[in-house]
Design brief:
- The protein is of the alpha/beta class.
- Helices cover 37% and strands 27% of the residues.
- Strands 8-9-10-3-11-12 form a 6-stranded mixed sheet, sandwiched between helices. The chain has a 4-stranded antiparallel sheet with strand order 2-1-4-5, covered by helices on one side. It has a two-stranded antiparallel ribbon with strand order 6-7.
- α3 (104-114) runs parallel beside α5 and α5 runs parallel beside α6.
- The radius of gyration is 18 Å and the shape is globular.
């Protein structure tokens, strides 16, 4: 479903992604782990083409993201086509990014109505179903300012799901939450994992990563250091850098 092939990303002299290659099967849950600044968020933003890659290519469901190929070279796609590609890739950010002047239901409806041109009645039914799915059926008419951080993040997840994406990306979805509300967001993501949604998740919640992932991808300084099933990664890390990372977690 997702192919990241020898991807490089530079910010001036900073080599943020160094030849990243990773493949994600349909329905697979990949969890990206590593210290802050290791490249996890940059990788997710490149998959969604919020950042342009400098070398390499990214495909979702077999389609090049952000480019077309002409005579062996990649040519940038127009913004309107990239925007269409982005509708197939749901993304949930650290900050909730809800529209403050819209209710929870209106936030969830916004993509289907304004991008997919869905009838408002159908979009409202979908919004009601998705808000019930994330445990917020009683908050349809609430505005973001009336919701807790965990509730806002669950609305953001419902909003991403409303577009029926082929893949879901989560960029540290609990990092802005207090400890009491982290669990409610992680529970929603757990439920999604059981429905066969293809997901890439960047997180610092290691217990959650071990429980939910099909594979752990450990990143350091813009490179993939190790890739393994969770039991192997946490119990028998292969590289010295992975072992130091796991030991630091266990020492907390």
């Amino acid at each position: 479903m997702v192919e990241v092939l020898d991807v490089h990303k530079f910010y001036g002299s900073l080599h943020a992604l160094r030849g990243i290659t990773v493949r994600v099967a349909p329905g697979e849950v990949i969890v990206l782990v590593g210290a802050s600044g290791s490249g996890k968020s940059t990788l997710l933003r490149c998959i969604n083409h919020l950042e342009r890659v400098d070398r390499g290519r990214i495909l979702v469901d077999g389609h090049l993201i952000g480019h077309r190929e002409e005579r062996g070279r990649l040519v940038n796609l127009p913004d309107r086509i990239v925007a269409g590609q982005r509708t197939e890739i749901g993304m949930v950010f650290q900050s909730f990014n809800l529209f403050p002047h819209m209710t929870a239901a209106e936030n969830v409806m916004s993509g289907p109505v304004h991008v997919r041109r869905a009838p408002r009645a159908a979009a409202r039914r979908t919004a009601a179903e998705l808000l019930e799915r994330v445990g917020l059926e009683d908050k349809m008419q609430a505005y973001p300012s009336e919701l807790s951080g965990g509730q806002q993040q669950r609305v953001a997840i419902a909003r991403a799901l409303a577009m029926n994406p082929k893949v879901m990306l989560f960029d540290e979805p609990t990092s802005a939450l207090d400890p009491e509300t982290i669990k409610e967001v992680l529970d929603v993501i757990r439920q999604l994992a059981h429905t066969g949604v293809t997901m890439l998740i960047a997180t610092h919640e290691m217990g959650f990563a071990r429980e939910i992932s099909d594979r752990i991808v450990f990143m350091d300084q813009g490179a993939i250091v190790e890739e393994a099933v969770p039991g192997q990664f946490f119990d028998h890390p292969q590289s010295a850098r992975s072992k130091a990372f796991v030991d630091a977690i266990l020492a907390r």
